Amino acid sequence: MIKTRMKCLNICLLMLVLEFLKKVLFS
Length: 27
Description:
Blueprint: H1 2-26
């Protein structure tokens, strides 16, 4: 259960980073 939560958290962080990169690169 903890592993699943960590995986979900990592995916969420990855999504946030990608969105941030998009804003920085395409601004």
